[in-house]
Amino acid sequence: MAYLINPQHTIAVLQKFQFRFQKKYGQNFLIDAHVLDKIIQAAGIGPDDYVLEIGPGIGTMTQSLCEHAGRVAAVEIDKNLIPVLKETLAEYPNVTIINADILKLDLAGLLQRENGGRPVKVVANLPYYITTPIIMGLFEGPAPIDSITVMVQKEVAVRMQAPPGGKEYGALSLAVQYYAKPKIVANVPPNCFLPRPAVASAVIRLKRYEAPPVAVQDEKLMFAVIRASFNQRRKTLANGLANASNLPFTREQVQSAVRRLGVPADIRGEKLSLMQFAQLSDFLKEVLS
Asked: Could you tell me the residue range of the domain that residue 130 belongs to?
């Protein structure tokens, strides 16, 4: 049975290995059993699943994943935690411990060797400073991803799930919602971690779409348009795109595309849906062809 979720056991393991938290890795270890159960339940882990855990720490969540999943790959960047993981996970034959940076790991190759290239369920308690690069790297990369259930800073989870029109809605909302259906499944206060983070957290499940919910001719162009639309939120959509250094369109071309979209000329990017951004980028794509 998993036992590390008990705070006293967590402290005992840390003391035994004389472990020192490293700020550069954003290490905060979960010590709340109720939250752990919610993560496992939300991820929908079953005996046929191959699970990728990013940032296992001392193995608290890994133990529970091993008890529910068929196999688990635990990728930990901090080499000082590898001896800890080898001890805390010693009784679980279905886990592979990998000392690597997830952003540099050949994940597609790993999943091909270990899981026959079938989709993997990702579960993670991510360092908050690198949440977005990891999640977008998983979605944009070649590795087959079924879902990502992840602990993130609460305000980031809210942004991922945000609908058009509000201050939380932005480029991250659109990027996540192009690839997956987001759902916040738990709010997690700071006292659920050791050490306590300075901010509230949330668990969000991102269930990947089999195909994106909108059709677009050029994904890269669409995301460039989206980023330019939100770089200066107070500007109108047309001004933001016309002044963007990474876009090759004249003001007249941008204004024409916005008119074709059938929205007010002074509309801001935060009012556009994913579908409208796809349409707008297709209109602009025509200018380049």
From this structure: 7-208
